[in-house]
Amino acid sequence: MGSGGQNAASHEGYGGDSAIVVRQALGFGLECHRAGDFQSAAEHYYDVLDVRRDQPDALHLLGLISFQSGDSGTAKRLIARAIEVAVDDPVPHITLGDILYSELSYQDAIESYVHGLEIDPELAEAHNNCGNAQNAMGLFEDAVASFKHALALKPGYSAALNNLGNVLRVTGRYGEAISNYRQALAFHPDSAIVHNNLGNALRDQGHIHEAIESHRMALEIDPKVMEAHFNLGNALSSLGDFESALVHYELAIELEPRFADGHYNLGNAQREIGAFQQALESYHRAVSINPGYLDAYNNLGNMLADLGIVDQAVAAFQIVLELDHEHPNAGHMAAALSGETTVAAPPGLCSRTI
After folding, report:
1. pTM score > 0.70 for this model?
2. Which letter does DSSP use for residue 241 in this model?
3. pLDDT in tens, 73-83
């Protein structure tokens, strides 16, 4: 099979004229692609391009393979060629949007999704993905509209129900968020992500025990969901069960070692149970991962002051003031002397889109 620029001998596995070669090669390529055999799929797609240099389906699918293989630059170039050739095909626009979203280029992703939806406004998945990009940009009402459009086209679309729940929760509409998460679970009860997100919304409403049940359900389905360990730790901390909480913070960190919030909340739990040296180490790890982590520097200063390491405590508070000039200096200096000030664990919880 070919890798571009092949001669006719590479087409011995196909029969008939060029149209038949294109159809058969695309068919074989898709079969390999779906099976996860990207190399063989790419060879078939290149065979198509040997026959028709700008065949848009082959260009798009080669771009998709490049994206799936981690080469987004090549993917974007190939898909841009497909878009130039197949001006009435929405799918390359949607794939390009997905690539741009993965690169955190949310505005460009939205533009690509909109282009695709202008060609075919009935693509529920495109509305869902556009909503995710709008949510990431803080365009919450636009995101709500996109997710609702996806659901109008595809009732019971669990991903859109989950993602709509995320936006509603961020905007403080906790009851509606809970309703959407529960609807998503009615269609997809084994989604660890949705159980975790439901737990977050339940905690927001003060239903801590129900939240704990949801996070535990998420972990029963998939014990490697880092966010569920972290959020379960937060819920347990809010009940004062710091011993259990730190177990889940440690598991979250094991799954994602550079998760600064995990180290920070672990430090808070360790401090609460009197493990002061361990807490100090956790705060140090948090600020080493995120040098702009104001709350972690503040609690690091508190911890150093508690341990009588006043010079380093003052230095930590000075960093806090560099990060936030309006942070009350007197309070920090008092903390350095008395160790009375403590910043609580951040209220933010981890939610995931689908």
Report:
1. yes
2. -
3. 999 999 999 99
For residue 4, the 8-state DSSP code is: S
Neighbouring residues of 102: CB distance < 8 A, sequence distance ≥ 6: 67, 72
d(CA 80, CA 87): 11
Cα distance between residue 151 and residue 168, in whole Å? 15
Question: Do 158 and 354 meet the contact criterion of CB atoms below 8 Å apart?
Answer: yes
* Collapsed DSSP state (helix, strand, coil) of residue 350: coil
Residue-wise pLDDT for 222-232, tens only, equals 999 999 999 99
What is the DSSP code string of 86-145?
-TT-SHHHHHHHHHHHHTT-HHHHHHHHHHHHHH-TT-HHHHHHHHHHHHHTT-HHHHHH
d(CA 232, CA 255): 15
- Backbone phi, psi, residue 270, to 5°: -65, -40
Q: How far apart are CA 100 and CA 337, in angstroms?
A: 50
Domain 1-89, CATH class in plain words: mainly alpha
